[in-house]
Amino acid sequence: MNYQWYPGHMTKAKRMMQEDIKLIDLIIELVDARMPLSSRNPDINELGKNKSRMILLNKSDLADAQANKAWVEYFEKTGIQTVEVNSKSGSGLKDIQNAVSVACADKIERDRRRGILNRPVRAMVVGIPNVGKSTFINSFAKKACTKTGNKPGVTKGKQWIRLNKSLELLDTPGILWPKFEDNEIGKRLAFIGSINDQILYSEELAADFITYIQKRYPDCISDFYQIENMAEPYRCLEEIARVRRCLGKNETLDIKKSSMILMDDFRSGRLGRLSLELPN
Q1: Can you give the pLDDT at residue 144?
Q2: What per-residue confidence (pLDDT) applies to 156?
């Protein structure tokens, strides 16, 4: 399966971000902690050049704890302030304000020299679809400022949110880039739900996921579902269907349903803390 998705509204969203970039001091980029590089939109680097940068490893509770530490070190070596966060629980959010101050230290000092006091840092929150931007903003602001959802494309337009005297956030829609040069990146994006499931073949997606995760966590699926036959992905899906009683007409095994169960168990963290990539 060729993993590509770039609906028309993303082109409009990108143009809107290009117009708004002159208004902001800082780009706060949310990435999925399970695959921080694959979940970074390369267009953001071009969009945000000459702006202060910050990365939030969101959904850090779903990723391998040691991998999270390695990614923080990796990004901070490039000079980007990086914080592990779990937007749903609020973990790590208290560290963000200080990270903003460090990332924008030059801007704050320039304001001070000009006699400009208490001017808030204006930050644009960016990220790919379904990475958790709206959940982060609502949790950080401690109120429901934006719409949230567990599918890509919930945020449609821009929203300014004033958090306090020193920080304002601009929420933006999640955008991908027009073409994934490496189909493996598209595949990983599909695994975490950043590509619309409705345009994918669920059985093929789940089979690709089994092949991918077996190389990194060989006992993960067999231990969780208590199954033994892991030799072939589609046979594995049949075993999951049998264990979970996914049955169709005439008691036939419903592979599509077991595929959806597997992907949901991964995305929710029920399979365990799994990282799909590590720093080189």
Answers
A1: 52
A2: 46
